[in-house]
Amino acid sequence: MSSLTDLSMLELAAKLASREVSSVEATQASLQRIAQVDPKVRAFLRVDEPGALKSAEASDARRKAGSPLSALDGVPVGLKDIFLTEGVETTCASRVLEGFVPPYDATVVRLLKEAGLPLVGKLNMDEFAMGSSNESSAYFPTHNPWDLTRTPGGSSGGSAAAVAAREVFGALGTDTGGSIRQPAALTNTVGLKPTYGRVSRYGVIAFASSLDQPGPMARTVGDTAALFQLIARHDPLDSTSADVETPDCLTGLEDGVRGLKLGVPREYFAEGMDPEVAGTLRASLEELEKLGATLVDVSLPHTKYALATYYLLASSEASSNLARYDGIRYGQRAKDARGLKELYTQTRGQGFGAEVKRRIMLGTYALSAGYYDAYYLRAQKVRTLIREDFTKVFQQVDAIVSPTSPVPAFKLGAKVDDPLSMYLMDVYTLPCNLAGLPGLSVPCGFTQAGLPIGMQLLGRPFDEARLLRIARAFEREHDFFRRAAPV
Amino acid sequence: MALTLEQVRHVATLSRLSLTPQEEERYATQLSAVLDAVAELEALDISQVEPTSHATLASSLLREDVLRPSLPPEAGLANAPAKVGTAFAVPKILE
């Protein structure tokens, strides 16, 4: 161990518990690492140094008094800028929300505070979580710590890059079509998109409400499980929050994969996949088999329709959710507008970036008179077919294994002007969101050029513990998580 | 399906978005390409399929109708770009 920031969350928690290290020391190490590498990585939109240190001091005081609040009390983490944080500016990486200081915390932020974790700052993202490369942030793109000329993925690219660059020990992201898993895969980190409804969306800025789900991102499977357990709670403030028990994901984490049936969907190993990604995945599947799992060839026949379905539904929901940014109650307001309608159109025209406007337009079109049945309603019906595919496959297998992203991290700027090509980055991740299932990405290797590759695991609703157990069995055989990005 | 500039302007009006002429051109091209790509859904027979609006299919939840504390007016107004007293200020809509 060369440095404090190389520790996993659970390793740091053990050192905090034995009083070998204080939370203030860990938080200062994190802040120093940010000062050292973030000018290159650019993961943070803002760092809350006084807030983080105050919280760390309080954690140390509790520790001294013998009353830590949770297993991760004192472990510093970062938050995607989509989570409302009381008193700390939150912009969702959009100009339209510049200067917005939330008067309350998102439920997950409250839960992390109640568990005693210092919150180091707000992480960059694609504007309103729309994008797969972090380049649609209104402020600046985040760089991949494994190769600064490449994207860390998106939309939770800031969260992934900060964790991979060891600026924070863990982070929260959100996943609407793969926004936790795809950046995790591109940065050698672990990302879990929980079952829809498992983690509260209260205080999480809405993109597509029937798909959005917050989740943990960390460097190890154990850390991901520990962070997940802190935020998986029923929340009466979110009417879609599932009233189910918080899972125990740590107890059985080391139980291995012996006896498990893992489905390999043939549609997920299709044309267009990078040959190095395909080869690494095949090798990983063989390893899982050697570890005692049985691989089952399965079919999800409607997979090829998922992308179109997703973009119609997500854009439709976004066009409705983003109607609230009208320059009246918060955020920016256009100057010199004549009359109310012009105030709306100019505020929105000036405040939103290109990708956000494109999706609002697509969604408005899909919902408009004369086109609703042809686009929105049709997409909702195809969503049913996609859900049914998964239901059938999960009668045969315990989990599904696939690549997370069809390609490793691509160059910044490579796909910016080609929305369709960018949308293809989500082709393996978004069916899971349409069906509301849990999905996890775990590092499974590197390309010859040294770029990370991720393996995706999909599970039955509320079966996150099993996904984490499979990921852990795989992780135990490797040292990927020990490899530090060369930044 | 190719969108005309007129259709783009109509959708922009419905979306309450002011667009520059360059943006209108760009969105006409890009949205046409996206609509072409999503047209593949027409190949499926969905006549017997029920729509899924939500992954969890939860029914509506009701709670007790009791008074609870909410944000104080000054907190609710703290982010307003313009305000008058305890109200959000907007341009006049009636002469």
Automatic annotation (TrEMBL), chain A:
Keyword Cell membrane: no
Gene Ontology MF, one: ATP binding
GO CC terms of this entry: glutamyl-tRNA(Gln) amidotransferase complex
Catalytic activity entry: L-glutamyl-tRNA(Gln) + L-glutamine + ATP + H2O = L-glutaminyl-tRNA(Gln) + L-glutamate + ADP + phosphate + H(+)
This enzyme's EC code(s): 6.3.5.7
Biological processes annotated in GO: translation
Domain Amidase: 25-468
Gene3D superfamilies: Amidase signature (AS) domain (3.90.1300.10)
Class of this enzyme: ligase
PROSITE patterns: AMIDASES
Keyword Transferase attached: yes
Active-site residues annotated for this sequence: K80, S155, S179
SUPFAM superfamilies the UniProt entry points to: Amidase signature (AS) enzymes (SSF75304)
Pfam family, one: Amidase
Keyword entries, A-Z: ATP-binding, Ligase, Nucleotide-binding, Protein biosynthesis, Transferase
Family, as annotated: Belongs to the amidase family. GatA subfamily.
PANTHER family noted in UniProt: GLUTAMYL-TRNA(GLN) AMIDOTRANSFERASE SUBUNIT A (PTHR11895:SF151), TRANSAMIDASE (PTHR11895)
Protein task: Allows the formation of correctly charged Gln-tRNA(Gln) through the transamidation of misacylated Glu-tRNA(Gln) in organisms which lack glutaminyl-tRNA synthetase. The reaction takes place in the presence of glutamine and ATP through an activated gamma-phospho-Glu-tRNA(Gln).
Known partners and oligomeric status: Heterotrimer of A, B and C subunits.
Name by which UniProt lists this protein: Glutamyl-tRNA(Gln) amidotransferase subunit A
Organism in which the protein naturally occurs: Corallococcus exiguus
TrEMBL record, chain B:
Listed name of the protein: Aspartyl/glutamyl-tRNA(Asn/Gln) amidotransferase subunit C
Family as reported in the entry's similarity comment: Belongs to the GatC family.
Annotated gene: gatC
UniProt GO molecular function: ATP binding; glutaminyl-tRNA synthase (glutamine-hydrolyzing) activity; transferase activity
Function: Allows the formation of correctly charged Asn-tRNA(Asn) or Gln-tRNA(Gln) through the transamidation of misacylated Asp-tRNA(Asn) or Glu-tRNA(Gln) in organisms which lack either or both of asparaginyl-tRNA or glutaminyl-tRNA synthetases. The reaction takes place in the presence of glutamine and ATP through an activated phospho-Asp-tRNA(Asn) or phospho-Glu-tRNA(Gln).
EC number: 6.3.5.-
Organism: Corallococcus exiguus
Enzymatic class: ligase
Subunit note: Heterotrimer of A, B and C subunits.
GO biological process, one term: glutaminyl-tRNAGln biosynthesis via transamidation
Keywords annotated in UniProt: ATP-binding, Ligase, Nucleotide-binding, Protein biosynthesis, Transferase
Catalysed reactions, semicolon-separated: L-aspartyl-tRNA(Asn) + L-glutamine + ATP + H2O = L-asparaginyl-tRNA(Asn) + L-glutamate + ADP + phosphate + 2 H(+); L-glutamyl-tRNA(Gln) + L-glutamine + ATP + H2O = L-glutaminyl-tRNA(Gln) + L-glutamate + ADP + phosphate + H(+)
NCBIfam families: gatC (TIGR00135)
